[in-house]
Amino acid sequence: MSRQVPFVWYELMTTDAAGAAAFYGKVVGWTVSEPEPGSPMDYRMILRDDGAPTGGLLALTAEMQAGGARPAWVPYLGTSDFDATLAAIESDGATVLLPRTDIAEGSFAMVTDPQGAPFYLMQPRPPEASPDAQSHVWDRAKAQHARWNELATSDPAAAKAFYARHFGFEFNSAMPMGAAGEYSFIDFDGQQLGR
Q1: 8 Cβ partners below 8 Å, 6+ apart?
Q2: Tell me, what's the pLDDT at 2?
Q3: Cβ contact 114:93 at 8 Å
Q4: Residues 11-60: tens digit of each pLDDT
Q5: pTM (two decimals)
Q6: What is the Cα–Cα distance from 95 to 98, expressed in whole angstroms?
Q7: pLDDT value at position 169?
Q8: Tell me, what's the pLDDT at 21?
Q9: Rounded to whole angstroms, how far apart are CA atoms 186 and 148?
Q10: Could you give the CA distance from residue 4 to residue 116 in angstroms, rounded to a whole number?
Q11: How far is residue 94's CA from residue 186's CA, in Å, rounded to a whole number?
């Protein structure tokens, strides 16, 4: 049996929720829900045709932007031991931007890797009725799922070592790109997840 792919959720941070919903609706066919009434922030679900979510959309407020938040797609990398993984990546050069937050779906923190690329660390909490449930947002073979991940980094060797150590990524092949260097592929448990 294959292991759970570390990419367990994706978040689109945007300054224009309506514009993003219209764009991705036309390009990918996703539907973006309305925000939850009474929620302290404008957070919406990005829904596939089957009704299941592939990620969330966070509308950036002026305050968030003043604190440095910018429009971006940010992945959530899963762990089975949140505190131990967070301590390990911090000691290996990661920076915590948003400390541990606990919600019904699990525990998460926003961090940057040692080169400054942001991601969320998350320990998902399956629903009580489905204790063995796993994330279904990434599937390379299915439409409207996340199907590729790409990291642009200032230090490819250090980034590869960091993600291999903490998330089990492998880097088994690369494509030469001339003066741009190598396009290295990210593998995990026999699957190619991206570059």
Answers
A1: 76, 77, 78, 122, 124, 135, 137, 138
A2: 53
A3: yes
A4: 999 999 999 999 999 999 999 999 988 888 899 999 999 999 999 999 99
A5: 0.93
A6: 9
A7: 96
A8: 97
A9: 10
A10: 25
A11: 20
Asked if pLDDT for residue 72 goes beyond 80, the answer is yes
How many C-beta atoms surround the C-beta of residue 102 within 10 A? 11
- Give me the amino acid identity at 134: Q
How far apart are alpha carbons 97 and 39 in whole angstroms? 22
Tokens of 34: 């309305």
Q: Which two tokens stand for residue 1?
A: 């049996």
Contact 144, 47 (CB under 8 A): no
Query: What's the token pair of residue 83?
Result: 């505190």
Closest CA to 177 of 152, 159, 160: 152
Q: Is 21 helix (H, G, I), strand (E, B) or coil?
A: helix
Q: Which residue has the tokens 């959530």?
A: 76
Asked if residue 1 has pLDDT above 70, the reply is no
In whole angstroms, what is the distance from residue 54 CA to residue 144 CA?
8
